[in-house]
TrEMBL record:
Organism: Anoxybacterium hadale
Lineage of producing organism: Bacteria, Bacillati, Bacillota, Clostridia, Peptostreptococcales
Record's protein name: Diguanylate cyclase
């Protein structure tokens, strides 16, 4: 707004006065030819004219001087006093004095009006500057509120919205134009994100108490489209210079991602990422906290997932992880309110059960075992060994109860380990049969041929039984090999061939987990070794190769040649015999080859193989 300036007017009165005076003197002195009397007559009007045009002190003085001059001049030529001139002089002086007083009053009024005009102009200019400054401040405030990264909502004294910045628009789902004048509760809807209960809006507290208010923890904002966001905020009063509350301003921000990260950090600190159970750190803290008299009796259950290493080695850690999750599910299902279940170690779990008697903990153990017996991961049963103990006295050490439960668990594990491992091995073999039925039939035929060779060699019943089982399980390591490689009809690549060669070592590791299968494991490990030392996986030769492995090698090769396989053409019996003879001393043991041909295939003591009758 432009500053108002007073208008300057030209002083016409002064100009007119000067011109009139000059004109009178010019007329008077131009008339000197008529004598002084003419001058006197003309000068007489000068004070009148001057007083009329000059309402000021200088006008009065000048008028008096001219009048006196006129009288003196007239007295020179007329020595006798003329009372009419004296009276006239007095009248003119009185008129001049009155005129002066009037002119002073008029002048004062004019000055007062001019002063008021100047004050008004100054006031208007000051008001214009103030309005301009106010507009600048408003613009600065608008830019600040718009640019700020947090949501900002301002309300009046009634809690109705006056400002809604862009961040607040995005978070609430309301446009400022639509939200202006609405109650704060309609736009800024907040709830407890854990319970879903509506939270009290902080604006009303601020208006009531006049102090800054913050939101409670776990507060969420529900936008117009139903989106829920975790927020943190504060509401502060807007006060004028007198301290009166003019409204409230709310500043809030979206902490959804921040809260999610905090929850993740908390989860990682106190929970096991795989099973979702509490971890050892959390258990140890609760172990100390709950070890008080009011929680007696306190029971502890220790659990160990059976066969996890075997499953990991055979099927990979993904299958083992599934077993862990199943076992943890059984334990969590058995938990009551107040109980704590945690993952203690790699394959171990622990439960802390406050106010639980010995009888009650035994019932919980039975419940866990029943749940596990109904669970499977593929063909694998979920098997856990459990041990438990109970603290009944205040002075009893809970740590000793934990150790007692752990020892009890290992006793159960040792007692169950044989059957458990056997069950896992059988489950692995079932998996192999389901994966590749051709391997199942091949393994059964090899097992039968091994039995026939063992009988022909007059081996003991124990050795023959071991030989049969070894023949049946000789390819168990193929359970971990990609079925696409096993079924491939084209020539194997170098990588695929290396994968195939791994099955002997894998089979050994699977079987060696069970102590009663250690000899069978050695037989399986060496069934691809050769007398010339060019076999695998160890490259041993001669007498280093177990007898059962030599027998399996002959039976395996004969069955592979005489039955359908993805990678070779079926040969008849004579062709297979010729191939066996050709590779004596290099690939096969010569004594076993001769005995197999003469006594099993051609001799009078021959037992017909299923392969001879197969199409």
């Amino acid at each position: 707004m432009e500053k108002i300036r007073p208008e300057r007017k030209p002083n016409h009165r002064k100009v007119l006065l000067v011109l009139s005076t000059l004109m009178i003197f010019m007329i008077s002195y131009l008339c000197l030819s008529n004598g002084v009397f003419i001058i006197y007559q003309n000068l007489f009007y000068i004070p009148i004219v001057y007083s009329c045009f000059r309402y000021a002190r200088s006008g009065l003085i000048f008028s008096s001087f001219i009048s006196m001059f006129h009288y003196v001049l007239f007295s020179i030529f007329h020595p006798e006093p003329l009372w009419d001139e004296i009276v006239r002089l007095g009248v003119f002086l009185a008129i001049g004095l009155i005129t002066y007083r009037l002119s002073e009053g008029i002048k004062r009024e004019r000055l007062t009006v001019e002063h008021l005009n100047q004050c008004l102009i100054k006031d208007l200019n000051a008001r214009a500057q103030l309005e301009e400054h106010l507009e600048q401040e408003k613009e600065r405030l608008r830019i600040t509120i718009t640019s700020i990264g947090d949501g900002v909502i301002s309300t009046d004294q009634r809690g109705r919205i006056t400002i809604l910045n862009q961040v607040a628009e995005r978070m609430t789902g309301w446009k400022q134009a639509d939200a202006l004048g609405l109650p704060i509760e309609k736009v800024f809807r907040i709830v407890n994100e854990e319970t879903g209960d509506i939270c009290e809006n902080p604006v009303h507290k601020v208006l009531e108490l006049g102090v800054t208010q913050g939101l409670a923890n776990h507060t969420a904002l529900i936008s117009q489209d139903g989106t829920v966001r975790s927020i943190a905020d504060s509401a502060a009063p807007i006060k004028n210079k007198s301290g009166d509350i003019q409204g409230v301003i709310i500043v809030f921000r979206d902490v959804t991602d921040e809260k999610k990260r905090q929850d993740e950090i908390y989860f990682k600190s106190f929970y096991d990422a795989l099973t979702g159970m509490h971890n050892r750190r959390y258990f140890e803290e609760e172990f100390k906290r709950l070890d008080v008299a009011r929680n007696l009796p306190i029971s502890i259950i220790m659990g160990d997932l059976n066969g996890l290493k075997l499953v990991n080695d055979t099927f990979g850690h993904a299958r083992g992880d599934k077993l862990l999750m199943k076992a943890s599910s059984a334990l969590k299902t058995a938990c009551r309110c107040g109980d704590i279940a945690a993952r203690w170690g790699g394959d171990e779990f622990v439960m802390l059960l406050p106010k639980t008697t010995k009888a009650e903990v035994e019932d919980i153990v039975k419940k866990i075992l029943r749940s596990c017996s109904k669970m499977k991961v593929g063909s694998l049963n979920v098997s856990v060994s459990l041990g438990w103990g109970t603290k009944t006295e205040k002075d009893e050490s809970l740590s000793k109860v934990l150790k007692s439960a752990e020892d009890f668990m290992y006793k159960h594990k040792l007692a169950e380990s044989g059957s458990m491992r056997g069950n896992i091995i059988h489950a692995i073999f079932r998996t192999l049969r389901e994966k590749n039925p051709r391997i199942e039939s091949h393994s059964e035929r090899v097992s039968l041929l091994c039995e026939q060779i063992g009988t022909a060699m007059n081996l003991s019943a124990k050795d023959i039984n071991e030989l049969k089982v070894s023949g049946l399980l000789h390819d168990i390591g193929k359970v971990t090999i990609d079925d696409r490689i096993l079924q491939k009809t084209e020539k194997l690549t170098e990588y695929e061939w290396l994968e195939i060669k791994r099955h002997s070592d894998i089979g050994y590791r699977i079987l060696n987990t069970s102590p009663d299968m250690s000899d069978i494991a050695v037989n399986v490990l060496s069934h691809h070794e050769r007398p010339d030392g060019k076999g695998y996986p160890r490259g041993i030769c001669g007498e280093e190769i177990p007898l059962a492995s030599k027998i399996i090698a002959v039976a395996d090769s004969y069955d592979a040649m005489t039955n359908e396989r993805p990678y070779n053409k079926i040969q008849n019996k004579d062709e297979a015999i010729e191939e066996l003879i050709k590779n004596k001393e290099t690939q096969f043991d010569s004594i076993i080859v001769d005995l197999f041909i003469e006594k099993v295939l051609r001799g009078r003591e021959r037992i017909k193989c299923p392969s001879e009758n197969s199409p």
